Amino acid sequence: VDYGHEEVRVKWGKDPRQYSTTTKEFVSDGNGTIKGVNTVQVEWTKTPTGQWSMKEVPGSEKYYPADLILLAMGFLGPEKQAPTEMNLDLDGRGNIKTTIGMYGTANPKVFAAGDCRRGQSLVVWAISEGRQAARQIDTYLMGKPSALPGPGGVIDTTRSPIAVNA
Question: Which domain holds residue 15?
Answer without folding.
Answer: 3-65
